[in-house]
Amino acid sequence: WEVDDGIGVTFEPPREGYDFDTEMKVNGACQGFCEPTDWASVIDDSLREGNWFVNDAETEIVVDSMLGDGARVVVAHRSDGVQGSVFVNVFRWDDEASHFFRCNADLGERDAELEAAFVAACEASIPLWL
Q1: Which of 20, 27, 105, 119 is the most exposed place for a label (fewest CB within 10 A)?
Q2: Three-state SS at 60
């Protein structure tokens, strides 16, 4: 896998053996606020607006659950495979922090069976700055 640590960290698999759309990212985000705030509301609003995956009739949220205080997992499936097939998002936050943490994996159609592995990887990703 190749690592790009420009803005956040992106992990891209070798293209042989993996779908072109498959990648995993970890980063801090603030959606323009960058100051302590109610991050759960910011994340809710961004999910409704489709900021992290295309939120339309072709996309179904199949998992949306809390992982405890200040952590949430959201998994969506896209039925047409045009923009990827599986979107994994794990968010972690502390309302006193200026950013929230997001680990996400976008899986192409051929890699959809790897969903559980990427959910586990993102759930295990814990930023030391929170």
Answers
A1: 20
A2: strand
Amino acid at 63: V
Joined tokens for residue 113: 């069976």
The pair of three-digit structure tokens given for residue 96, joined into one six-digit string: 């006193």
Cα 68 to Cα 59: distance, rounded to the nearest angstrom: 26
C-alpha 61/C-alpha 86 separation (Å) is: 10
The one-letter code for the residue type at 20 is F
Q: In whole numbers, what is the pLDDT of the chain averaged over residues?
A: 89
pLDDT at 50 over 70: yes
Amino acid at residue number 42: V
User: Percent of the chain having pLDDT more than 70?
Assistant: 95
DSSP letter for each residue of 72-95 = EEEEEEESS-BTBSEEEEEEE--T
15: left (phi over 0), alpha (psi -120 to 50) or beta: alpha
Placement of tokens 């998992």 in the chain: 63
CA–CA separation, 37 vs 21, rounded Å?
33
Chain segment 88-117, per-residue pLDDT in tens: 999 999 999 999 999 999 999 889 999 999
